Amino acid sequence: MRRAPAGAHPPANPLYKEVKNRLMRGLVAGEWKPGQAIPSEWRLAGRYGVSVGTLRRAVDELVAEKIVQRRQGSGTFVTTHTEDHQLYYFFHIVSTGGGKEAPTHELLSFRRDRAKGEAASQLKLERGEPVYRIHNVLKLADRPVIFDEITLPVARFPDLTKSLLAARAGTIYGLYQARYGINVIRISERLSAARASSRQAAGLQLREGEPALIIKRVAYTYHDTPVEYRVSCVNTAQHEYLSDLWKGAPAGAAEP
Amino acid sequence: MRRAPAGAHPPANPLYKEVKNRLMRGLVAGEWKPGQAIPSEWRLAGRYGVSVGTLRRAVDELVAEKIVQRRQGSGTFVTTHTEDHQLYYFFHIVSTGGGKEAPTHELLSFRRDRAKGEAASQLKLERGEPVYRIHNVLKLADRPVIFDEITLPVARFPDLTKSLLAARAGTIYGLYQARYGINVIRISERLSAARASSRQAAGLQLREGEPALIIKRVAYTYHDTPVEYRVSCVNTAQHEYLSDLWKGAPAGAAEP
DNA sequence: TTCGATTTGTTCGTATGTATT
DNA sequence: TAATACATACGAACAAATCGA
Q1: I want to staple B115 with a disulfide (CB 3.0 to 4.6 A). Which of A40, B61, B101, B120 is the partner?
Q2: Could you list the residue range(s) of the whole structural domain that residue A65 is in?
Q3: Euclidean distance between the first and final Cα of chain A, in Å?
Q4: Do B211 and A194 touch (CB under 8 A)?
């Protein structure tokens, strides 16, 4: 029982994809916020007029994309970036030994600037649009390991201040989420090796010109909308970037 | 309040996990080889005495892990590394522009050696066990970009020769699979920045001491068994390592 | 502490649609 | 065209976990 008589419509998505999209729209609209539970499967199935099995299939995909999490006996919850489990989700620097250490942050500078160059193009901003430019050092085991330059569009993060950033409880993505309702669900990173610039070297207490790992990251929220551009410089004398690959070639998104 | 009166049994896996494991054992045993179709869902369900739905759920997980692929109307096939689609599956070097270029290979050297150091420990070999040591250069757009040192246990690749390697049709993983029945399904990479060694610099036509991206890779087959250790040195002047993250924190495997 | 309501997890079954050969 | 195989959708029943009364 295909529903529409197909007036030359889109490829006639399966029903569960349709349901998934409707759920996504609810998430984007903020109908259910991170940390909160969405309605029960029974209730959602009724709301969308589908069987529980079909509803489950839609939620299955959101779970696979880590957009929501299921807890048996409790409910299905919108993913948060403040939980321990998520803390390391986008954090791939490990000590050469292999152990993950608790990081500490040091906010070096915070100022307003104008978008330009790669930051502008990756964030899909016009040249000259206002952005924040943030410099931050991350330490592991008390040694500076990562020097970050973060670019954020002012439009998406109104009234962000240095003290808000410095006083945040969890990760910076937790702050995006808690204060601005922006949920980072995907990042794309491009890595290369280069000599550390004087600024990067200073932040990492490294000799200028020493080889360092450069990571250019774009963070995306729903619908592949870029929200953060970040250039990280990593001292890989004692640490490495860990990449485990075995599944999930960029599938799933960008269909509708 | 574990349910079992503790017959010391495992946590009593769900049925579909059990079925998945049985399928895995069949794959490992070579009952169905890469490129071949496994029996139909209907048939497998009968064989394992479960419903088609349960059988499908087991296969779903194998599909998610890219161990098999479904083709509607045709069947379910064991994943191959020779298909175009899989060609770039474990290949993450892209030109700075973004496009992926067709690579060409040049086999520099091939010799037998004894395992030692990190290669031995990562491959879970005793020091001194026989290995092959292979040096290879990969070119993109006619320029040398990646210098590889590959270590393989002789025990798993008996009678491998230089000409076999040089004459291979597709990727090196395709050769592992076609000739030795070894199916690489997962790799783990650790990246750092360092000065290129003289050997690496020579292979890449680079000045010695220039910063380069170092990738230490371990390739695994079923049951997390390591089969290849590889140190790659990448000239990132014109190319970058691309890492897209958004799902699938190492879940799925390693259960029993 | 126990109990019961709620919610997700697992398993079964059936019917029908769609792609391949 | 017909047979086969996977894809989608529905429904039902019970198990297991959670949480509050």
Answers
A1: B120
A2: 15-78
A3: 21
A4: yes
Amino acid residing at B3: R
Q: How long is the CA B125 to C1' C10 vector, in angstroms? A: 41
Same domain (yes/no): B136, B232: yes
Chain A CB contacts of B216 under 8 Å are 240
Position A249 in a domain: no
Whether residue B188 sits in one domain with residue B118? yes
Q: Are residues B64 and B139 in the same domain?
A: no
Residue A135 β-bridge partners: A109, A149
Nucleotides of C under 7 A from a protein CB: 5-14, 16-21
Averaged over B40-52, what is the pLDDT? 96
Say yes or no: B180 and B226 in one domain. Answer: yes
- State which of A57, A78, A99 marks the end of a domain: A78
- Which of B55, B78, B101 lies at the terminal end of a domain, its last residue? B78
pLDDT in tens, A61-95: 999 988 999 999 999 999 987 665 455 667 888 89
Separation CA A98–CA A242 (nearest Å): 9
Domains contained in chain B, number: 2
Lowest mean pLDDT segment, chosen from B6-10, B74-78, B202-206? B6-10
Q: What is the tens place of the pLDDT at every residue in A139-183?
A: 988 899 999 999 999 999 999 999 999 988 778 988 998 899 888
The pLDDT of B156-160, averaged and rounded, is 96
Which residue's CA lies closest to nucleotide C7 at its C1' atom?
A: A73
Q: Is A192–B241 a contact, with Cβ atoms under 8 angstroms apart?
A: yes
How far: A73 CA to D14 C1' (Å)? 15
Same domain, A98 and A187: yes
Residue B82 has pLDDT above 90, yes or no: no
Which bases of chain D come closer than 7 Å to a protein CB?
Answer: 3-12, 16-19
Is the domain of A125 the same as that of A192?
A: yes
pLDDT tens digit string along B22-38? 999 999 888 999 899 99
Answer for the pair A235, A144: CB distance below 8 angstroms, yes or no: yes
C-alpha–C-alpha distance, residues B70 and B44, integer Å: 14
CB B211 within 8 A of CB A211: yes
A97 lies in the same domain as A70: no
Does residue A246 sit within a domain?
Answer: no
> Does residue B6 form part of some domain?
no
Element (H, E) at A114: strand A103-114
Q: Which stretches within A49-161 are classed as H helix?
A: 52-64, 84-87, 117-122
- Please tell me the number of Cα atoms within 13 Å of A120 on its side-chain side: 11
